[in-house]
Amino acid sequence: MKPTPVPTAFEVRELFEGMLGRAVEWGDAKRVDPLDGAACATYVDDFGNVKAIALADIPLIARAGSAIALMPQNGAEAAVSSGLVTPPQFDNMAEILNVAASLFNKKDTVHLKLQETFAPRETLPADVNELALQQGGRIDGALAIQGYGDGRISFVVAF
């Protein structure tokens, strides 16, 4: 088996563009820090070992979570301003992160699936928090969603 790959910027942009049904642009950005408030999805192998995570900052949760359900853009901006996403915005982002498991599953790699999605400011397990701070095996970027604005996302693969 080959190691689990880190998704490419192209793959991440394509996933969001396909899920949201609107143009999405990728840009470089600093990593998402869970201490700043972020959704965190954990992806596990068939034995329940955490092999990868995804982190989405509050602006991305609010904007992508609104865009996928065609909720008004001003609701997304209210969530960004307050730093508090609504339950539907979080649930919608969790569904996007569930589909994002496909980014890790390639021919001849260990199959990963979504285990859990943590809400912003929820305490992460120690191993997940350590993985979020890992320097290598990651891609960090910003997604600009047409009509909604941008937010940051990070994908980290354990090695």
Overall body shape: globular
Task: Provide the residue-averaged pLDDT.
Answer: 97
In which range does the helix fraction lie?
25-40%
User: Sheet with the most strands?
Assistant: 6 strands, antiparallel
CA(first)-CA(last) distance: 14 Å
Record field, number of beta strands:
6
Strand content: 25-35%
Query: Rg to the nearest angstrom?
Result: 15 Å
Please give the count of helices: 5
Following the backbone from N to C, one meets helices and strands in this order, namely: HEEEHHHEHEE
| Uncertain residue segments | none
**Major β-sheet strand ordering:** 1-5-6-3-2-4
Structural class: alpha+beta
Would you summarize the structure shown here?
With 159 residues, this protein is an alpha+beta fold.
